[in-house]
Amino acid sequence: MTYLRAAVRNQSAVEDLFQETMLVAWRKLNDYDRSCPFGPWVRGIAAKLIMAHFRKAKSDIMITGCDTLEYLSRHIEHIHERTGDTWEQKIDALKHCIEALPENYREMVELRYFKHQSALRISEITTISLEAVRKRLQRARALLLDCLRRKEVVMEAGT
What we know:
Helix content: over 70%
Distance between the termini: 18 Å
Number of helices: 8
Order of helices and strands: HHHHHHHH
Radius of gyration: 16 Å
């Protein structure tokens, strides 16, 4: 979150990027080299999402270059040593938060982020209106963000 907040002005965009980063990290679990620290790896994912965000909404971004994102990452590097920043702790938190979602939201998250279905395709699969699918995804992301924030607070309180 610190990395995202340093790069993006819009708090709503920061929250969306955080959720997307955690979900991409979850999907790419098998690509992660567990002998390396989690922080730099997840910030790499976030950097790619920030750059994509920048291409779509130039006014929301405070910084523009990969060099600047790398600079931020280097200065945030010490954070990976904090309690709660290991790969296992982050994945366990995300897994718990996804499992804690109500079934109708969990189904939307699984179809969208794990099975890579578009909102339109999810609407067809579930026979739910497109607007209802979008709303459920929005609510699911908000619940995930809230849950992950609570997990971070719990982990930070123990340090």
